[in-house]
Amino acid sequence: MKFNWGTGLVIVLALFILGMGTAVYKATQARHDLVTTEYYQEELAYQGTIDGKRNARELSGHCQLKVEDQKLILHFPEDLKDQSANLQVLMYFPTDAKKDFELKEENWKVGSYEVPGSKLGAGKWIAKIRLESGDKMYYFEPEIVL
User: Fold this and answer.
1) Residue 75 · residue 63 · CB < 8 Å
2) Architecture category of domain 39-145 in CATH
3) Measuring CA to CA, how many Å separate 98 from each of 42, 92, 144?
4) I need a labelling partner for 58 at 20 to 30 A (CA). Which of 18, 20, 32, 94 fits?
5) Which InterPro entries match (predicted)?
6) Alpha helices (runs of H) in the chain, residue ranges in sequence order
7) Would you call 38 helix, strand, or coil by DSSP?
């Protein structure tokens, strides 16, 4: 078989089509999770989060997420200690939406809060915390790498 410019052109086009087909196949198989499944509804209610962050900045301390005695503990600012509040904690794992989970407490006395370690895996975790005490809402986002 004689190799000329026509044969080379056919080989280059065939390799190009094969490469593009592979790229399209891999792109359709990739996971492309949004941050949350209710993204648009949460975006409309984001003003509450902005107000909660402002209220949290006005406190004398910060919310902290620490590992103590093989347990993951949330520590809240001293300004909020012993107040009655409703707590909502979303443990967000940025690289895998399947690992996210939510915890809720009604009429909870603010103090330290233990997050169940059985649900946590290695990696970066962000605790998205909504704390409603009285007529004020506080929003915290401490992070930790396990």
Assistant:
1) yes
2) Sandwich (2.60)
3) 19, 10, 18
4) 94
5) FixH
6) 5-29, 39-44, 46-57
7) coil
